[in-house]
Amino acid sequence: MKAVSSSTSNTLKVIFSLTFTMISCTPALSGDSLILRGRPGPQGQPPKERVLHLADLSAPRIGTATREDEPWAFESREFLRQLAVGKEITFTSIHSLPTNDDIPRDLGNAEIGGVDLTTELLKSGWAKLKEIKREATEDDIKKKELEAEAKASGKGIWNPHGQKARTVHHAMPTDSQAFVTEWKGKQLDALVEQVRDGTTLRVRLFMPDGDHQMVNIALAGVRSARASSKQGEPSEPWGEEAKFFTESRLLHRPVKVQILSLPTSTATPFQTSATAAAPPPASIFIGTVIHPAGNVAEHLVASGLARVVDWHAGMLAIGGGMERLRAAERSAKERRLCLYANSPAVTSAFKGSNGATSNGHSRTFDATVVRIWSGDQLSVLEKDTNIERRLQLSSTRGPKLADARQAFYAQEAREFLRKKLIGKNVKVHIDFIRPREGEFEERECATIRYGGHGANIAEQLVEKGLASVVRHKRDDEDRSSDYDKLMAAEQIAVTEQRGIHSGKEVPAPKQPLNISETSGRATQFLNGFKRLGRIPAVVDYVAAGSRFNRPFAKGYSGIRAPRTARNSSEKGEPYGAEAYDFASRRYMQRDVEFEVDTIDKSGGFIGSLYVNKTENVALTLVKEGLATIHAFSAESLPWARQLFEAEEEAKQARRNIWSTYDEESSKAAEAAAAAENESGPLKTEYLDVIVSDVRTKNGFQFSVQVLNTQGIAALEKLMREFSIHHRGAVASPPGFSPKGGDLVSAKFSDGAWYRAKIRRASPIKKEAEVTFIDYGNQDTVAFSDIRPLDAQFRSLPGQAQDARLSFVKLAGPESDYHVEAVERFRTICEGRKLVANIDYKEGPLLHLRLIDPSNPAVAEDPLACINADLVAEGLASIDKRGCKYFSSYPQVLKKLQLSVAEAKRDRAGMFEFGDVEEDE
Question: What does the DSSP 8-state code read for residue 174?
Fold first, then answer.
């Protein structure tokens, strides 16, 4: 026969040998009893057990919850345990005792390897002889002599000094949480006292202070079928086999125990509050029990006698324990062992041929995140197919915005995803497809990774306490491929009380105000926005290709995108849908900056939108052929020229709106319009000018002062009076704050005061960008150096006029000759008295041909000019795109073409390495 565990916690058993050929034993109630068990049945059923009491011996009794240990009881049983447990035994029954719960009981003698157990116990002093009422035999006399020798030597229970004081705590610790907190993750020596089922043990912990603490342990990560604990009560299928498997390896074996957690799963967020009453003492802990030969939990699962418990992953995933359990479970399933004997073959509902899902889409692909719907849903644009797919994060549940207690965390989760993912490239793996159910549509559930290290965004979300992990059913294989890591992340969030696990109920965030409800309401904010300049924002909604919301309606100055249909019965304009899709995918939920110029009649703000500080959204839409220029409003913009150039580029490339654009027909129409609206070139009118300022920001431009006698005299007089006026203490009125468009007095970097116009002001920085209207200079000036312009100095118009070179453009910023070209222009023009002819007027901007009167060539060639000289030096080129009036000046065009030929011949400037002219 072979021994296995009993339901009695302090029974000493002798465990069977692994060859199932001999009897083995385990200590029972004390150091004078054994429990024996024979070999397993033909189908691996646990063998029957029987109790053997050693004849004529009495050992101290182990205590229980109602009585304490007798002196030396534990040491006595330990001696017999070390002597007998797990070893082959031969016993002789002298007398049969009444059965206990159908377990046979015998009185007799036993030997292990030829060593008599009774003799060894008496010799070592760990048992006493009972009073013998029969006539003493030679064997009885020998036993008395052994007892007398041990007593004389002070061995075992006869030790005159008594046993070392200790307390044995049979009940579970009163403060369960404090006990777990103190000993969590620390290894404690222990002895397995009882196996209740395959994954539930009662162990004796040997505490560092010498006390013994009895605790119940559920093996972390696994759960076996229940074994019966009462006579006549049925066990669950494979429950007895699992129990036998564990107790045959661990019962009364020394082990290492790690306590990991209390038995409750993570509480549903918001289910309990921080003021909830303290829980009652736990009846069991979750932990690991490690035998020198390994972790019995892994062997149980590999044998098909236990299943993996998902929610324990948070305790085991970090050390790799969960991965080993999963591998063992897969092995048992593949071999159809025990619990999995009748399980169907492992399949995945979403798998199709060639790595596709059941709906025909790719299962693994690269994509760009284009929208965040909530804390657990987002949309991506698949790179290979350009298909937009809405995804649910696998096994992840975000807080609900509709629940007032969760609304704050729902918004935090959504914002976390937006900042981490919007516009970023990600790798998507579809784990499964959640079928349509009730009002919920079919949804692809995916694991999404981003960044160089392939971080799982769901894992980060859960670890911050901004989402919880879905508890799947036991056999539900539709789950995240990183499910165990998600559980581990949630364990961290719970332990550190982050986010939804903090127990704090944060008030729901206030909804943003819609200040575009009416024109009247929007007007109240207009001047404030204009003073602030660029304002940080987030695009929350795209209403059309050129209309965005956050937290108010906003459109662009100077452009118009095609209108989209507002409902199924309405027809949108051509390319309206394309413009909307482009704007949505490129700008939805992006961090942006906006500038406000004005408002429309419905309260929508009109202005400029910038992405990544530099990308002007209006320019991008026009360049993509998804918006057209509104010429009247565009001409007043500082970046009007770039806008027209972008449209021309879209026309040449025939993008979207311009897909049917006919350049020849368009040119003919433009020529006809020009012939109709203009009578040819402007009348020649030579003016004396001084180039007062040169600017290279937002394209090359400069300012000139026209040197007519009346204007110069008036300016000189005004500046004399202006200087005298500011010698006194001119103070700003209380509460003065300059606004965009205001005429003011401002101090220039030379320390003098000049008339200026506010371009934009920042009350936060207490500074404003200004243009000095009499000289054209631009500068940023502190509010402390700005005063309201006195009425007496307002009558004379500003003497500086914005200008550009007609017919030509300097080498651009992308050219290696840009700096040289600008410096050359400054050298020959800035601050000098020149002659200018106005060739074209573009609103307030003058297109000028500059002439140096000191140049001898001017007397011989009436077309000689600085414009042509810069072209001949290879520092400028003919600007046919930016200048629409060439047809009116054929002689000037011929002159410039000769200058180009001269520059190419001499390999001057930008022609140093060959022909670099743009294709026309």
Answer: S
Tell me the average pLDDT of the chain: 83
CB 128 within 8 A of CB 155: no
Neighbours of 855 (CB within 10 A): 14
pLDDT score recorded for residue 272: 46
Of 238, 220, 375, 369, the closest CA to residue 288 belongs to: 220
And the tokens for 688? 């004396």
- CA distances for 570 relative to 545, 598, 722, angstroms: 17, 30, 62
DSSP, res 508? P
The secondary structure of residue 281, as a DSSP letter, is: P
Q: Which residues contact 34 (CB under 8 A, 6 or more apart)?
A: 3, 12, 13, 14, 25, 26, 27, 28, 51, 52, 54, 80, 84, 89, 91, 110, 117
Q: Poorest-confidence range of 129-133, 259-263, 402-406, 670-674?
A: 670-674
User: Side chain identity at 684, as an amino acid letter?
Assistant: T
Q: Are 505 and 542 in contact (CB under 8 A)?
A: no
For residue 555, the model assigns a pLDDT of 61
Using the CB atoms, write b or e for 218-228: b if 16+ within 10 Å: bbbbbbbbbbe
What's the pLDDT at 547? Answer: 65
Asked if 564 and 510 touch (Cβ cutoff 8 Å), the reply is no
Kind plus residue range of the DSSP H or E element containing 728: none
Q: Give percent above pLDDT 90 in the chain.
A: 30
Q: What are the backbone dihedrals phi and psi of residue 50, each rounded to the nearest 5 degrees, phi first?
A: -145, 155
**What is d(CA 700, CA 860) in angstroms, rounded to the nearest whole number?**
30
| List of E strands, 273-394 | 285-291, 294-295, 306-308, 364-374, 377-382, 388-393
pTM: 0.60
Note the pLDDT tens digit of each residue in 820-863: 999 999 999 988 889 999 998 887 788 999 998 888 888 788 88
DSSP sequence for 776-807: --EEEEEGGGEEEPPGGGSSSPPSEEEEEESS
Helix (H) or strand (E) holding 598: strand 591-599
**Cβ atoms within 10 Å, residue 727:** 8
State the CB neighbour count (10 A cutoff) for residue 887. Answer: 15
What element of type H or E holds 629? Answer: strand 628-629
CA distances from 903 to 812, 828, 864, 877 (A): 17, 19, 15, 10
- Phi/psi at 657 (nearest 5 deg)? -55, -35
